[in-house]
Specification:
Chain lengths: 368, 64
């Protein structure tokens, strides 16, 4: 084994963990990452996973649907295990109290102690960062800012889900379950890897500039110095009453060098539009429309695999919005099939991270 | 006064990327996500204290 995957949809935590153990067998594992439906009590699954694999670095989070090689699932737990032929070293740190203050310094100090190298000197070709964050905390933008300010290592990941209940999402590490927290994992993979983001949208040629915003609340009050809801609706040629129905198919995006960083609208309140990701005043956001999610994902994956010259495993952080779009279009099975030939685990997330925080995107780690 | 923002941006990109183009692109993306688009600042750009503070924090955070 270098990279192995396992899945269970057993009814209890004990049965599910046992099934994962049976699949992985008795080999020595350096690291396990897992994503679990909230049907498994968060504190129990975290504790039992750590007990089942006491010598392994284990971390994960709750999900809003799971992804497993060739399959999109619900109500299950999926896991990927790495031995020392695939991961040279790994260290995990928990950043707590995100709502109070974002402070990654302690996490970075623990990485520096573990790897014996300052994080601001680590080369992004040698290290890979994974971030899993409470999907209900609303602090992902600040977290990614803080992470990115302190190191050139790229962190990629997703915001935890809770089976679309939007009540409580959890991240798991050290046999514990956390809310209002993020798990940061710093890995030193043995072989080259690729980090990618993919989203299936194209620009419609209309730009809305954020002229008044409440960043903390992810609220946009004005676009182009006009009430946000009105300006957004007019850009789409509809009335404000019809706007919300078009949110899933027409999100907005900050486009950098042709790459959209999507901001998905959530709801309208008065003249304002609230989003799942904040925008800064002065930011130009492009009006977007959806394209073919299956083809785009397939192409992105194929390109990255070709670049690496092969693949031994893929971790996918797939936006729950994309999963809903796939369900609506009856394409869920077809999306699962995109990952049929590759050992894959992943989950449907409440936000995705790669350099920054975004929505309606799939971020992926591809291990050669 | 003018031009300090451009100077700071160029310093941050140079310091962090050390000439690596891929890293320079990542740093530019980080700046744009913070609301600071390097392309919008020239030697004549006014020294906006809020932007200068953001950039100095960014530079400081890497040194810690």
């Amino acid at each position: 084994m270098t990279i192995a995957i396992a899945r269970s949809e057993k009814g209890t935590v004990a049965e599910a963990v046992r099934e994962l153990m049976d699949t992985f067998g008795s080999g020595t594992m350096k690291m396990i990452i897992y994503f679990a439906s909230t049907k498994y009590a968060p504190s129990e699954i975290s504790a039992q996973m750590q007990s089942a694999f006491p010598l392994t670095t284990i971390f994960g989070c709750s999900s809003a649907g799971e992804i497993f090689q060739g399959k999109m699932a619900k109500g299950s737990v999926v896991a990927m295990a790495f031995n020392d032929a695939s991961i040279d070293d790994v260290e995990v740190a928990v950043v707590k109290n995100l709502r109070r203050k974002i402070a990654v310094r302690d996490a970075y100090l623990s990485f520096e102690r573990h790897f014996g190298e300052p994080v601001n000197e680590m080369k992004p070709s040698n290290y890979l960062g994974i971030v899993l964050v409470d999907g209900m905390c609303g602090r992902e933008e600040r977290l990614m800012d803080a992470i990115g300010d302190g190191t050139n290592v790229l962190f990629i990941g997703g915001s935890a889900g809770d089976d679309l209940n939007f009540q409580s999402t959890h991240v798991y590490a050290n046999g514990k379950s956390y809310t209002d927290a993020a798990v940061l994992a710093l890995l030193k993979p043995v072989a080259p890897f690729e980090l990618v983001k993919t989203q299936s949208v194209r620009e419609m040629g209309v730009e809305l500039v954020v002229t008044k915003a409440n960043e903390e609340q992810r609220e946009i009050v004005e676009f182009n110095y006009r009430p946000a809801a009105q300006a957004y609706a007019e850009a789409l040629g509809v009335s404000v009453h019809e706007l919300a129905a078009l949110f899933p198919s027409h999100p907005l995006g900050l486009v950098i060098d042709g790459e959209p960083y999507i901001r998905s609208p959530k709801h309208i309140a008065g003249d304002s539009v609230f989003f799942h990701c904040s925008s800064v005043e002065g930011m130009p956001l492009s009006l977007l429309k959806l394209t073919n999610l299956i083809d785009d994902t397939k192409e992105t994956l194929a390109k990255s695999i070709a670049k690496l010259g092969g693949v031994s495993g893929v971790i996918v952080f797939n936006c729950a919005h994309r999963a809903l779009e796939l369900e609506f279009k009856h394409l869920t099975d077809k999306y699962g099939a995109v990952f049929a030939e590759v050992p894959t685990v992943g989950f449907n997330s409440y936000g995705e991270q790669f350099i920054g925080h975004m929505n309606q995107t799939a971020t992926m780690i591809i291990f050669s | 006064m003018a031009g300090k923002i451009k100077q700071l941006i160029e310093g941050i990109i140079a310091e962090r990327s050390k000439g690596n183009e891929m890293l320079a692109k990542v740093v530019k993306t980080k700046l744009i996500l913070k609301g600071i688009n390097p392309a919008h600042y020239s030697d004549q750009s006014e020294d906006d204290p809020a932007i200068i503070k953001k950039l100095e924090n960014m530079r400081q955070n890497l040194k810690h």
